[in-house]
Amino acid sequence: MAQLTEIVKANDIRGLVGTQLTERIARALGSAFARAVLTSDPDGPPGRVLLGQDMRDSGEALINAFADGVTGEGAQVVRIGLCSTDGLYYASGALDAPGVMFTASHNPASYNGMKMCRAGARPIGLDSGLAEIRDLAQALLDHPTWGTEEAPEPELRGAVSQEDTLRGYAEHLRGLVPLDSRRKLKIVVDAGNGMAGLTVPAVLGAALGLPDLPLEIVPMYFELDGTFPNHEANPLDPANLRDLQKAVPEHGADLGLAFDGDADRCFVIDERGEPISPSAITALVAAREIGKEKAAGRPATVIHNLITSRAVPEVIAENGATAVKTRVGHAFIKVEMAKYDAVFGGEHSAHYYFRDFWFADTGMLAALHVLAALGEQDGPLSGLVEQYERYTPSGEINSVVADVSLATQRVVDAFEGRPGVVIDRLDGLTVSHEADAPSGDGSPAGLWWFNLRPSNTEPLLRLNSEASDPATMALLRDEVLGLVRVAEPAVDARG
């Protein structure tokens, strides 16, 4: 018996195709989505669901089954075809209708999944409707006659139609950040055989017949292929950036861009082939968005999650705006974006959120900001972002532990009560120390912080740490890992 708790995560649905995620399960989720969302969403046009998909081979059968579940409830389905996740969010916002994107993002080819939103790209997570959809679908799957010949035919079945939203998506993004720079930029783009192979030519190139931009694009792996023959479409893993890092200096390019499988995240490589941290990109884009608000005479608020660099809230404050810290995860940050009417939000994982994009995330719009900022001056990208890279990060380090709670408590016991140490429980465990605070009891001096967050699905702890210099960061990282991994087998997985 299928148990949806295995595949319904905090922010989306993801599972192995054929075992955890089947056509029958997709059909049940489609029925549940129509019942839960269309009946409780008075803001969107009644009875219409937008469906988009990435390039995975399993997508067509799953999306057909989901559409059958939706239409079986009497609702209409609008298929927007192959798209990026932010392309689905654009359609949801522009057409004011709820939507579902069929993707497993950066996961291997054997996986697929769904990202859901209400009309206007409003997020659906466990705390905002996904749990209800899960439970409704589980009840259908558990019913002995549902989906069999004994089940009654629906009294009224909805229709399925098609709509192309790619051009509108490209025009909308171009309108938000015009590229009228004084110099032409050469960029290498690694699409990882994912949906950026479709969206980059549409937005940055001439595939749709839009006016030429001052860009020369060197494409890498633009062929849509859900088997990911060149490397996984997960730029958060440094191994998947190596081809791009090599190509940028080889081509004499000004920068490189790498997208994940569903092309909603964008990573940036400078002219030397060095990765730029998503925190630095967050700070750069925040400064630009704050500047637009100040020019219009409006106060600005920017959201950042609690494991972005300390440089991010510093830059926000230096530019005269308000910084709001939130938990990790797009469902949480989108809620905070809307709550504070924030102009921009950024995460360490290279998700970037914009008020002008229905508070949803779009890596392509962040890329346009980087291109515009670089084109407005004559120096290299490495020099432009230097002001935003102020501290030394550890990167994310994963440890498999036998008892997550016990390992976390060991860390609390070791740091609690040390001079100048502050403990925060907003999302996992965050321990911090300010630059001018006293140190002692073995604590490193200067500014540092670390966060330990448990995985939702595995006996895993994720460590992120940062300090004012590499030596302090190394001391801090090694001390925390030593406490986490005491007498327990552990696996390192960076990214």
TrEMBL record:
Name of the protein: Phosphomannomutase
Entry similarity comment: Belongs to the phosphohexose mutase family.
InterPro entries named in the record: A-D-PHexomutase_a/b/a-I (IPR005844), A-D-PHexomutase_a/b/a-I/II/III (IPR016055), A-D-PHexomutase_a/b/a-II (IPR005845), A-D-PHexomutase_a/b/a-III (IPR005846), A-D-PHexomutase_C (IPR005843), A-D-PHexomutase_C_sf (IPR036900), Alpha-D-phosphohexomutase_SF (IPR005841)
Keywords per UniProt: Isomerase, Magnesium, Metal-binding, Phosphoprotein
EC number, UniProt record: 5.4.2.8
Domain Alpha-D-phosphohexomutase alpha/beta/alpha: 7-134, 168-273, 283-391
Superkingdom of origin organism: Bacteria
Cofactor(s) essential for the protein: Mg(2+)
Gene Ontology terms, MF aspect: phosphomannomutase activity
Record-linked Gene3D superfamilies: Alpha-D-Glucose-1,6-Bisphosphate, subunit A, domain 3, Alpha-D-phosphohexomutase, C-terminal domain
Positions of the Alpha-D-phosphohexomutase C-terminal domain: 396-481
NCBIfam families the record matches: PRK09542.1
Regions that span the bilayer: none
